[in-house]
């Protein structure tokens, strides 16, 4: 068998729950087998040491939609939780959230989300590092309601709602989470004013012949 080089990237780690590998040494393994194999007759690699840095914040309750997604409005809630200061710590945080295409989503990192890379819609369809949203503070152990407007999305299309939360030290050490959304099917055109009668109704009868 010919020798080949395999590059496995572990640069993207999305933690949605406390991980035993956070700020600790863990081991990663790679496993290879033939395309037509159904007998688990491949081979596992030797362990590769991996350290996942601790995060400043994570989600105690994950971002969850609270209303039907519309082309111009998305509403959701979440509850952040401190990690490096202890789960019971009450501290302020910074929120970044936006809507992107499904093609853009896999390319995003914490750093690119902080610069709103790929964000769709107008300025009101994103939250760019704010510690207060709609008059509500972004704070651990408190539910945060968020409503995005002027999103200018297409009908019947899949998108990704991206939410990133970190503490106010802004060290890009927070937690990133994606929610799949789909806008409702629509029509190509609509009425701003419905048809109304503007004159008298008349009847025309066909001429009778013979």
What does this entry look like structurally?
The chain has 210 residues and is mostly beta strands. It has two domains: 45 residues, no CATH class; 126 residues, Sandwich (Immunoglobulin-like), CATH 2.60.40.10. The protein is 2% helix and 34% strand. The protein has one helix and 13 strands, in the order E-E-E-E-E-E-E-H-E-E-E-E-E-E. A four-stranded antiparallel sheet has the order 8-7-12-13. The protein has a three-stranded antiparallel sheet with strand order 5-6-11, with no helix packed on it. A hairpin with a 2-residue loop joins strand 9 and strand 10. The longest helix is centred in the middle third of the chain and has 5 residues. The radius of gyration is 26 Å and the shape is flat.
What's the structural blueprint in terms of helices and strands?
Blueprint (H helix, E strand, L loop, with lengths): L24 E4 L2 E2 L10 E2 L3 E4 L5 E9 L7 E10 L10 E9 L8 H5 L12 E4 L1 E2 L2 E2 L6 E6 L8 E10 L7 E8 L28
Helix content: under 10%
Find the count of extended strands (DSSP E, 2+ residues).
Answer: 13
- Fill in the CATH topology of the largest domain: Immunoglobulin-like
CATH class of the largest domain: Mainly Beta
Rg result: 26 Å
Strand content: 25-35%
The neighbouring-strand order within the major sheet is: 8-7-12-13
CATH H-tier superfamily of the largest domain: Immunoglobulins
Structural class: mainly beta
The end-to-end span amounts to 95 Å
Globally, the shape reads flat
| Unreliable residue runs | 11-18
Largest sheet features = 4 strands, antiparallel
Number of separate helices: 1
Compute the number of structural domains. Answer: 2
Global mean pLDDT = 86
């Amino acid at each position: 068998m010919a020798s080949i080089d395999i590059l496995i990237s572990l640069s993207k780690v999305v933690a949605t729950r406390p991980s035993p590998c956070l700020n600790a040494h863990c081991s990663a393994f790679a496993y290879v087998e033939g395309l037509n194999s159904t007998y688990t007759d491949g081979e596992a690699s030797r362990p590769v040491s991996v350290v996942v840095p601790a995060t400043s914040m994570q989600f105690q309750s994950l971002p969850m939609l609270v209303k039907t997604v519309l082309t111009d409005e998305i509403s959701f809630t979440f509850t952040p939780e401190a990690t490096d200061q202890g789960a019971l710590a009450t501290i302020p945080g910074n929120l970044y959230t936006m809507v992107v295409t499904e093609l853009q989503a896999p390319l995003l990192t914490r750093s690119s989300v902080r610069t709103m890379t790929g964000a769709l819609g107008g300025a009101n369809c994103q939250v760019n590092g704010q510690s207060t949203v709609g008059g509500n503070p972004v704070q651990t152990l408190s539910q945060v309601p968020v409503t995005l407007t002027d999103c200018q999305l297409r009908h019947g299309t899949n998108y990704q709602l991206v939410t990133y939360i970190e503490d106010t030290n802004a060290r890009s050490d927070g937690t990133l989470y994606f929610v799949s959304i789909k806008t409702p099917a629509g029509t190509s055109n609509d009425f701003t004013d419905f048809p109304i009668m503007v004159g008298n109704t008349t009847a025309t009868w066909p001429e009778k012949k013979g």
